[in-house]
Amino acid sequence: MSNIINDFRDKDTANKLCKMINKLSDGKRIKIVHVCGTHEDAITKNGIRSMLPKNVEVLMGPGCPVCTVPPNKIDSVIKIAESGVILTTFGDMVRVPASHGSLADTKARGADVRIVYSIHDAVLIAQKTDREVVHFGIGFETTAPTTASELLSKVPENFSVYTAHLLIPPAMKHILESGETKVDGFINPGHVSAIIGVEGYKEIEKKFKIPQVIAGFEPLDILFSIVMILKQINENRGELENAYKRIVKQEGNLNALKLMHTVFDITDSSWRGIGLIPKSGLSLKKDFEKYDASKKLELIKGIDYDMPAGCRCGDVLKAIIYPWECPLYNKLCTPQNPIGPCMVSQEGSCYISAKYGIDKI
Length: 361
Fold this sequence. Notes:
CATH superfamily of the domain at 71-167 and 252-296: HypD, alpha/beta domain 2
Shape: globular
Helix content: 25-40%
């Protein structure tokens, strides 16, 4: 049992849940996919995979907002930065490679690339300068409302956003439709679900009838969600259940959803290592074009680019393999010298596995 679960009662509960998992799985090969970097960190940190029977697998899918940003968008913001503007973005995004290198390389060549903790920090920078400030807005439904909120708050004329926001449910649908990986059930992300609510996954429930459980981030939350999925499988059910009711509401965060719907249109978008996913991205509405860097500035389209030779980040993002099954993992590709995006971000499964010294289950 993991030493993270120190409380005696938690150990006892975890043991009971593990026994239930063994009983419910009954030797059947079960593959569960989650789509959340925080879930992956909790699973790996607490040794949850080692608690499960060998026939029950839990893999991470496209739940890393930094890893999934398409390279052509990184190429575009590199060109924006090289044009002389101030470019702001989040820390992990700076090191992700594309065909023109990374934003860190661009900064080293003299471009003004700044790391911020929020888009509001970028707006504050714009208020204190006459230079153009462009914020590279990334993230899923959790960060998109903050972008929308700022743009509704009368930002300076010298401020704009280059958006690469993506949506999680369409990516889950794509995994199911592609057939590239077997999925017996989903552990749905807690943070995203706090925004979109239970309602955000209803289309998947209706169309695919696959077990889905919205889960929190404590070890017992995750073990309990696996029990719930296995119980559905045994009962031939494919339903959406909410095991994180202390945070996730049926309707989600209505204020955040209203902000998103006011500022963004839903559009088709490419995902790194996966490809084009219909209706999976967000673009600024026409009313907000003056804050849209893709309209405001002359951009150079990025060239076609995929993973470097030998890198299997795409298969990691599609929940086909574990990080340590990539031939570059912790050899040529390390957190100190990342080759693929899954080793760059703190929410990337390769980074998380390497951080905790995992090379097998």
